[in-house]
Design goal:
With about 100 residues, the chain is an alpha+beta fold. The protein contains two helices and three strands.
Length: about 100
């Protein structure tokens, strides 16, 4: 089993506007935009439906992508640390004859 390299994922995540992101719809067009603490859009839109076929589900998926990725990365790192701890414990037990 090959190990997942988190560095490129973290790098891509660092290049996008910081969450929170919100989804907004006006006249049938959906767009994703960075939000302030009151969930009001700020800055320029991150993406919009324009001529694409962006549905509410797609907009919601994109909106949550940064926070979902942060949570997934944190979980992978937590599990890797747990595996490392178990490997160190097993090695220690092996050395002491346990």
């Amino acid at each position: 089993m090959s190990s997942l390299d988190l560095f490129p994922i973290k790098s891509r995540l660092a290049e996008v506007p910081a969450p929170p992101w919100g989804e907004f719809c006006e006249s049938g067009d959906w767009w994703i935009q960075q939000c302030d603490a009151e969930w009001s859009p700020i800055g320029e839109s991150i993406c919009n439906s324009g001529t694409e076929d962006m549905t509410c589900a797609v907009a919601t998926f994109i909106e949550h992508a940064p926070t979902d990725m942060q949570a997934l990365i944190a979980e992978v790192e937590r599990l890797r640390a747990l595996l490392d701890d178990r490997a160190r414990t097993a090695a220690l037990l092996e050395r002491i004859g346990g």
